[in-house]
Known about the structure:
four-stranded mixed sheet; alpha+beta; three-stranded antiparallel sheet
Amino acid sequence: MAFIPAYPCPNKNKSSLLLRFLRGWRSWLDVLFERSYRMKMGHYRLPGMDVYMVNEPELVQKILVKQPRNYPKHQLMHKMLAPLLGNSIFTTNNEVWERQRRLMDQAFEQARLKLVFPLMCDAVSVMLARLDKVADGSPYPVDEEMTHVTADIIFRTILTSPLSGRAAHDVFENFNRFQQHTLRATVLELYHLPAWFSRRASIRSANTIRSVVSSVIRERFDARERGEGGDYQDILAALMEAVDPVQGDSFSYPEVVDQICMLFLAGHETSASALAWSLYLLSNSPELQHEMVEEIESVTGGKALAYGDLKKLRATWNLFRETLRLYPPVGFFVREAVESHCMRDKQIQPGSPVMVSPWLIHRHRENWERPDEFDPCRFETEAGKESARNAYLPFSLGERVCIGAAFATQEAILILASLVRRYEITPVPEHVPLCVGRVTIRSDNGIKVRLKLRDLNRV
């Protein structure tokens, strides 16, 4: 029987201005209506602002791939995320972004996938040891655990340091608060209402998260100035040493903090979101779990997962790809029109927000067959392959495609394969995730599953 996982039921009709405010206060997904999933391009009016939603694949290619300089990141994104990410490559544009990307590309050579694989395995081993203690079949909140393991991996690869359970919990709680208050502040400001309370609350949460990484970076900068830099081989060391071939300068301490915070967000929050949703989908798919375990045992011969094994785990890859289709971690990209122009039948003015939504494009009725249904095998059909080529962008597209896409995918395949190999994952029938769209796509009431140690003799 087809499994249609939880998602917000769209409104029948487009909301009024007042209803958009009330619904958007909780989640921007609650503003969507049935036609949002069929239209090629939409137009929303806000006080003093026209917003355009682009779903047609050809126009998405124009915005993200063919003419990205005509559609830079919108200033709204910078205002939303600056408290946490500062002036990093996630929000900057033009020459500033180009310099940052040149330096980041140098540093990210340190994140060669084979080099970081043992560090990922270390973090996964620690995760399994934690989960063994709770794998008794009781409901367990895996969303927080996925935040812990992905943040731990980032700490090990970027800062050569494991992440404590206390710090991981603080990051999880404060990022949830940051998302909630940032969404509310943005909605209030779009409607020209006072947002100081929500904005201050989001800044407090962001400062707590930034302090987790900034103290480590400060120590390393101070040690280098004393001539005690040490022999670090992590991404932080590469960022500190990178020299821009064009301008001949390097990142300052504040710039490094901003970039590391960006990597921390992109490297753990987005991955944690996708992994938590993957486990929810898996818990409702016992046949897929059986297929994955059989494939893992066949590929590994019963041994520990090796670097070369990951690309052979077809069923695990398809699970992750389908999760990213149904629950893309970043549900929308906001761009800004540079000049006046016509798109379809709409006249777009300079400064207008032009939005590309992976959430809508991945569930668009013209882009995908059975778009709301969980079907990881769709990527092996001709129709699914065609849809993936034209209407699949979980990591964005073009020159601003996610710098850590390969890193995140390797991490996810390793974690999912390790989990399904070790545990039977079953649902909690009384728990239905409440999907919300804020900075990332998360469940407002968490994601709970039951874990039980697997008997491999029964596979």
